[in-house]
Here is the input.
Amino acid sequence: MALKIWMYDKLVDEEEARISVFDHALLYGDGVFEGIRVYSGKIFEFAAHLDRLYDSAKVIRLVVPMDRDVLADAVKKTVEANKVTDCYIRLIVTRGAGDLGLNPFICKKAGIIIIADNIQLYPEQLYETGLKVVSAATIRNHPLSLPPQIKSLNYLNNILAKIEALDKGVSEAIMYNHEGYVAEAVADNVFIVKNGVICTPPTQAGSLPGITRTLVIRLAKKENLEVVEKNLTRFDLYVCDEFFLTGTAAEVIGIIDIDGRVIGDGKPGPITRLLKKKFYEYAHS
Ligand code: PXG
Here is the structure.
């Protein structure tokens, strides 16, 4: 069945979902987005995603051309129109059509695009066996360049790191910041466990403030597990007991090898498995 896509102010058939070649989203990656899950018909952590979208837009001086309530309603209508109860929503705000110059302020009207579709997940088996990762040579964007807290339409920084991973035969890369501390994976946040303590880099180290990250920290604390936000080095990753990533697409997934160093006993560890279970229960509750 053809998808119904929200374009600007209404739902249209997939074939009619078109944007201008002069939209600065296409010409310059100028815009912001969110990737949101729907579990059992419920839009997951919706308020947090909307907060982050409006924050990202504010920082790049992009006026979202819809009030929050109206936008939330458009997202719900798109999910309903596609008759999906478990899916992935891509909510995009483009700068809009301008000319071939950089000036964003001549773009007449920002565009809203909402897609509700299935998401390609890691095969279920990988959640049992865990993933291998490599350290990327490409560092995460410097905060004085494009702050990594913005979920912008320009993912080239992360794509370069992803290419490094694929070239080395793995699907994920760990990115470091300009000071050599761990920032994040290409589309996920990083956690390790050492001596029973869960550690994750502060978002100031150069990561997106992941909504799954926030939730996993909350779920871990509820289990009386200690969670510490602190700078992590490559050494810390090499010698940790457990290692996992969190994100909307991946949820919670264990890492079993980084740069040829095996983590723990080479299988996702007990805290990783517990948090994955708690996340699943919360998402489907
Ligand atoms: N860091 C980056 C750079 C991301 O893009 C995360 C961390 C995790 O944040 P959330 O809020 O999702 O826990 C992301 C999120 C995809 C896809 O299609 C990627 C993301 C989200 C949804 C889908 O690969 N990235």
In short: Residues 35, 158, 184, 187-189, 207-208, 210-213, 246-249 surround PXG (CB under 6 Å). The chain is about 30% helix and 25% strand.
